[in-house]
Each structure stands twice: as structure tokens, then as C-alpha cells.
Amino acid sequence: MKLFHISDLHLGKKLNEFSMIEDQEFILREILGIIDEEKPNGVLIAGDVYDKSIPSEEAMRLWDDFLISLAAMKVPVFAISGNHDSAIRFSNHGKLVDSTGIHLSPVYDGAAKCFTLTDGGITVNIHMLPFVKPVTVRGIFEGEEIADYTDACRVAVRHMDLDKSDKSAKNILIAHQFVTGAVRCDSEEVSVGGLDNVDASVFDDFDYVALGHIHGKQTIGRETVRYSGTPLKYSFSEKDHNKSITVVNVDAGGVSVSEIPLKPLRDLREIRGTYEELTARDNYAGTNTDDYIHAVLTDENDVVNAFGKLQTIYPNLMKLSYDNARTREQRDVSDAVDVENRTPLELFEEFYEKQNNAPMNKEQRDFVIGCIGDIWRA
Ligand SMILES: [Mn+2]
């Protein structure tokens, strides 16, 4: 049996004020194409379908189209809500669409939905636990001691219908939590105080844990506790990520994992060099200049209107920064001493050098001398 595991679609997300909707529509079509080719027995979607608890109309349309296509292909879908989703909006019409093979986690009420798939003598139980907070679980199981996220998940798992008597049946959990040890990146929401982590031991009874929440794909402890990561790069900290679908292969021997790479419409990448280098045709010809770009200029002096000029080559330039002596070392620009005994030029030279980590050149020095002369005369 073969299942696809994806998560964190963040439909409707904007990045540096750029709408990603076209990129998201493209990647969902890619995923549908791969599903059509590979014919998995089911698709697990581990939360954060939407970027906002009140999703945009465009985002809702994308999700609707995606589910309709999957239902038409008769591929069962198991999707849970994440911390970015509104559990109630996400599960709207959930019971109604169950019959189409599209299974959406309802608002957590103490019972995790469970479905059984069988194929070629393999039985898999799929347990769906939407994103939960301690306060949610505490409100349902009042007698239980729940101090943190680990307790909340442990109690939620203990109340699941987990039949371990049938040794041949495999149990899979879909969850959306921050499991201790996971490596974060910049596009995730960090909870205040960072106390949202869950100990992986809570999931020991599952043969595979399909996780969402962390945006870089990774396994935690064992190969079968895994984040699939986002299908697209959602921050420049992910520039070196290779996004993919996680494929969960279940056979009599156990569960193993492989990947199918995903190729985006536009990549998100960093380019680095002097302004002259980045604008030289030889250096950008043959690259996809429509990609989302973070340009790092290494010029020692700021280039006037560099952003606007670079945009004429890289229309989707998102971010511009400098890597030079000034930005590499942030010295303290403290008060000047012995002010009375030094000329205005000397004081300005010291200030300039402290701020830029480099002395003024001849041209700049002459310019300052001119300015000081003008001020003196005025
Ligand atoms: Mn997320």
C-alpha cells in the first residue's frame, strides 16, 4: 500500500506582499498529476491547508478545486486542520463529503476520526488528530492532568481507538504539532514562549506519524515520524530546501518512506554579487529571472535606486540587502570624545568610519570639505 503525505499548503499566503496563489495553483496541479500517475491508496494532508483562519476567496476556490479533482479520481483524502486553519471553517460540510472519500477532521471533541484502508492483504488504520492546544484537551477530559502540549497529545492519543490486538494492521496518525527536536525555519509561526513542543514518545504506538507544522521536511528520531514540509518555499531561509511529496510505503514487513520531488512555477532563491555583476547579461542569461529573488549586493557603497533597477531584470525581486564591511560588523557608534580640540572634518571622518567600517575615500572627503565650507559661510 502506498500513501502520499503532504502538509502546510498555506493557501492564500502572501510573501513580501507577493500573492503566491498562481504558484499554489501550479503546485496543486503538479501534485494532482503525480497522484494520477502514481495512483496512491490515499492522500494524507497534515494541516495548515489555509494560511489564515479566515481564508481568502481565492484560497477557498483552490482547495475546493483540489478536493473535487481528488474525489473525481476516487483517491481517498484524509485532511486535518492546523494552527493556521479555523477548525470549524475547515470542517464545514465535513460529514456531508465523507461519503465522497474526502475526510476532513471535525473540531476536536475528544474522539479522533479513524478510517481503515485495505489493499493487497494490508490493513491500515488512519487516525486523524487536528491541531490541539492543552486548553482544548483539558476542557474535554476534565479529570486528566494536562500541563503542556505533550500531556495534551498523550491524553488525546490514549483516548483513541487504537486496536493493537491485530498485529498485522498498521496504525498511522496524522497530526499537526511541534515535535521536540524538529528544525524550524522562518515561515512558521513561533508560539509565544516556545512551549508548544510535544515529546515524540507520545507517538510510540504508531507505525507512521504524518506530521505537519514544521516547513522543512525531516524525520524525528525514527524514519517513520516525519514532517513532509511545505510544497513550496515560503521564506528565504528555505532557499536550499528541495520540496517533495513524502511517499509512505506500507507492506507486511513494515513502513518505509521515499520522496517525489516537486518543481515550482518559480523558485525562491538568493543571488549575490556586486551591482555590476548582478546586472551583467552573461550572469543572468539562461537563469529564470522570473524567480522570487533575494539580491545580496556586495558593493561597499549603496547603489542609488538599486531595487528599482534590479527589478527591470528580476521582476519578482522580493528583497534587497547589502553584505559589505558596513553590514558585516555592526560597531557601536558612540559619542565622540575631545570634541573641542578636533576639527569638524576629523569628527565627521571618525563618525563615518564607525558607521561604515571603512574610511571615506578622496571623493567623499572632498564632498564633506565642500559641505562644511558651505555651512561655515552660511
Ligand atoms: Mn504551517
Word description of this protein:
This protein has three domains: 2-261, Metallo-dependent phosphatases (Purple Acid Phosphatase, chain A, domain 2), CATH 3.60.21.10; 268-327, no CATH class; 329-377, no CATH class. Helices cover 28% and strands 25% of the residues. The chain is built from twelve helices and 19 strands. It has helices at 21-38, 57-72, 87-90, 94-98, 134-140, 149-158, 275-278, 281-284, 306-311, 325-328, 344-356, 362-377; strands spanning 2-6, 14-15, 18-19, 42-46, 77-80, 102-104, 113-119, 122-128, 170-176, 178-179, 197-198, 208-212, 218-220, 222-227, 244-251, 254-261, 268-273, 292-297, 317-322. It has a six-stranded mixed sheet with strand order 6-5-4-1-15-16. Strands 7-8-9-12-14-13 form a six-stranded mixed sheet, with no helix packed on it. Manganese (II) ion is lined by residues 8, 10, 48, 82, 84, 188, 213.
Task: Produce the secondary structure layout.
Layout lengths: L1 E5 L7 E2 L2 E2 L1 H18 L3 E5 L10 H16 L4 E4 L6 H4 L3 H5 L3 E3 L8 E7 L2 E7 L5 H7 L8 H10 L11 E7 L1 E2 L17 E2 L9 E5 L5 E3 L1 E6 L16 E8 L2 E8 L6 E6 L1 H4 L2 H4 L7 E6 L8 H6 L5 E6 L2 H4 L15 H13 L5 H16 L1
Parallel strand pairs: 1-4, 4-5, 5-6, 8-9, 9-12, 10-11, 12-14, 17-18, 18-19
Antiparallel strand pairs: 1-15, 2-3, 7-8, 13-14, 15-16
Helix pairs in contact: 1-2, 5-6, 11-12
Bound molecules: manganese (II) ion (MN).
Manganese (II) ion binds next to loops.
